[in-house]
Amino acid sequence: MKSTRSLSRASQFLKSIFILASFLFSIQTAHADLNLDRLSDEDIKRAENLIATLAPLIKERDAKENLATLTFPELYAPLNQEDQEFLRSFQNLDAAEAGIKIPYRGIATGQEDLAVIKGQKIKMEGKEQDLPPQFLPNDVYEKYLRMMEEMQKDLGKQLYIESGYRSSAYQLYLFIFYLKNHDYSIRETARYVTLPGYSEHGAPKHQAIDFINIDGISGETNPADFENLDEYKWLLQNAEKFGFVLSYPKNDARLTFEPWHWRCDASD
Ligand SMILES: [Zn+2]
Predict the structure, then answer these.
(1) For ion ligand 1, residues whose CB falls within 5 Å
(2) What's the structural domain count of the chain?
(3) Segment (H or E) for 200
(4) 121 forms bridges with which residues in the sheet?
């Protein structure tokens, strides 16, 4: 009798431990199991809601022209706890599982010492247009300037910076923002927008520049148009001397060809 009672007490104790453990586990993994092929309907609503909640912050930073240096604390600040956990589940995604094959480059905090590049002008259909301010690590900007001086001498024209540095927090926002363009598939989105830590735009030691030419030909236009530019052919011949390499070359089955995207690796 006595032994039966203590046995049932022990089993009740084990049962409550089990309930507690599964409760704690469920908190930890509340949103950890994002469906990589397509978000659940519930998670799609969460993602839409997240983007809507962040819209005023993004708009404000965009108007101040410092969206590219957004920090993680600034990105999380407008969110309630549930949205923060949801956002964190994207931040903690396993990149390899999501199909990302490019190397990890590290986290860009948004607080690095950066050159601010203003006053770049191009001509779209003959009409002069200002490019929005861009950010680059100082040494990369200096190398870019030296390279453009040489291109100007050789070709009588140069390339401009369409996209330079962006922080990992902004990269995380962009990833979630662009899910809607890829039917809320994480794997599909990751083919076009990478996860924080994997972008060469947020990697001061491996900083990439997306170039645009004077006529507005860039990664936003047809890739073949950029490929046909004399400026691109000049880069193929000369960029290496200035420390720049083409990250995503043509005819690499694993990568999407990006003739406008050139990387500058730190020499140390
Ligand atoms: Zn790029």
Answers:
(1) 210, 261
(2) 1
(3) none
(4) 130
